[in-house]
Design a protein that fits this description.
Layout (H helix, E strand, L loop, with lengths): L2 H8 L2 H4 L15 H8 L17 E5 L7 H13 L4 E7 L26 H11 L3 E7 L2 E5 L9 H4 L16 E6 L5 H17 L4 E5 L11 H4 L4 H11 L7 H26 L4 E6 L3 H8 L3 H7 L4 E6 L4 H15 L7 E3 L6 H13 L4 E4 L8 H5 L6 H18 L5
Parallel strand pairs: 1-2, 1-10, 2-3, 3-6, 6-7, 7-8, 8-9, 9-10
Antiparallel strand pairs: 4-5
């Protein structure tokens, strides 16, 4: 199949799956990379990955929650004690990672140096010993974050500046407090991310990969949708595949950029099928599916309908029950019965009632849920980095969250 046809076919993915009211649902002819990702399965080797449980009860553990071996052991023990069955363990932040890698340096949170042990290996060992699933949580596109460049020459911001989103003048997103992302329209960027995933699933008995920031994360850059990417290389690829320039057909330009994310997701699915057969691929997605596609070109609905991912985790981080129910129901309707695991931002739940109502809604809809995050339930390494430690208000909020969680898992967490 010619490259030009690739973009034409996938440009209809969102509409073909009922993304807008009144749209028909034509048959979709998948390009080879997607067909291969949907159907390729290999014999299971090594220790078999644990499948998604019938009822998913997950918690996100962020990279700044741990630093030492005892942190890892304590976190996994607490996860088991509080009745969750899946740990979403962050291993990649913004072009730095939490395991010994040949591709990217150690986490900035580790001072860019080895902590003296392999946190991912220990987390996998401890999780499986306690009967928990563990998915490696990977920030897919972020390449750096911060007001200053990284101090390492081999970090992507310094080593591969051409890989980042650039405007028509060749200027990257400005340094700041939000993520600076890699350009998924470039084949070499997709190959690099695929290699990171390969490194994880080839080297560790994780039960799955959990993708985050698999979108154009330009939240804090004004006019970003129109400005990025406009570098010569991206425009050349677009011209070769479509025979168009961006301003010739802005909707097509938007769909094409969205399709580059789908290509990346398909590549990741293929890598997992090849290297860790049976492991799951899940994605944390923007709260509203229409905004996800229209603002950030994230076609999570399409990925789930195509079988590229096994489940979506809509990050509906709000204390308003109505908004929570509306966004979760939108995903359920658009995906036609695909696995939707609601993500609760419990850090926004100042009262027990807010958390209780949202968990009750999850139970009424099948029981799946994921909590963001571990740090809103228990003390973490991040607390120790604060001179005064957590405030009394934060400690009280954690106690509230643990109490409500215990109501739903049958555990005494006080």
């Amino acid at each position: 199949m010619r490259a030009a046809q690739w973009g034409v076919i996938l440009s209809g993915m969102f509409l073909a799956w009922g993304g807008l009211p009144g749209c028909r649902n034509p048959e979709v002819s998948w390009p080879p990379v997607v067909e291969q990702a949907r159907h390729a399965r290999q014999p299971v080797s090594r220790s078999a990955p644990r499948p998604l449980p019938q009822v998913e009860r997950a918690v996100w553990v962020a990279r700044f929650h741990y630093r030492y071996p005892d942190d890892v052991r304590t976190i996994i023990r607490n996860c088991a004690d509080m009745g969750v069955n899946t740990v979403l363990w962050q291993v990649r932040g913004a072009g730095t990672v939490a395991y010994p890698s040949r591709l990217e340096p150690w986490l900035e949170e580790f001072g860019f140096t080895s902590p003296g042990f392999d946190p991912l290996a220990l987390a996998v060992e401890e999780a499986h010993r306690r009967g928990l699933r563990i998915e490696a949580w990977v920030n897919i596109l972020p390449g750096w974050r911060g007001p200053k460049p990284p101090p390492l020459r081999d970090q992507l911001w310094n080593a591969r500046p051409e890989w980042f989103l650039q405007d028509s003048r060749g200027q990257r997103q400005p340094l700041g407090d939000f993520y600076l992302i890699l350009n998924p329209c470039l084949p070499e960027v997709r190959q690099h991310i695929e290699a990171v995933i390969d490194e994880i699933v080839s080297g560790y008995d994780v039960d799955g990969i959990h993708m985050d920031y698999v979108r154009y994360a330009w939240d804090t850059t004004p006019g970003a949708e129109k400005r990025y990417p406009r570098d010569e290389r991206t425009l050349s690829i677009y011209w070769n595949e479509t025979g168009k320039r961006p301003d010739d057909d802005l909707p097509s330009w938007k769909h094409w950029r969205a399709n580059q994310l789908t290509r990346l997701v398909a590549d990741i699915r293929n890598t997992i099928n090849r290297r860790r057969p049976g492991a799951t691929l899940t994605a944390a997605v923007f709260s509203d599916p229409h905004d996800a596609y229209n603002q950030f070109f994230q076609n999570g609905v399409g990925w789930l309908r195509a079988g590229l991912v096994d489940a979506l985790f809509p990050m509906v981080y709000t204390d308003k029950l109505g908004d929570f129910e509306k966004d979760i129901e939108a995903y359920r309707q658009l995906t036609g019965g695909g696995r939707i695991i609601p993500g609760l931002g419990i850090y926004k739940h100042a009262t027990a009632a807010a958390m209780r109502q949202q968990l009750a809604h999850c139970v009424d809809c099948g029981g799946d849920w994921a909590l963001f995050s571990y740090g809103s339930l228990w003390p973490t390494h991040e607390d120790r980095s604060l001179k005064k430690g957590p405030s009394p208000k934060e400690q009280a909020a954690r106690a509230i969250h643990r109490g409500v969680l215990g109501e739903f898992t049958g555990r005494d967490l006080q």
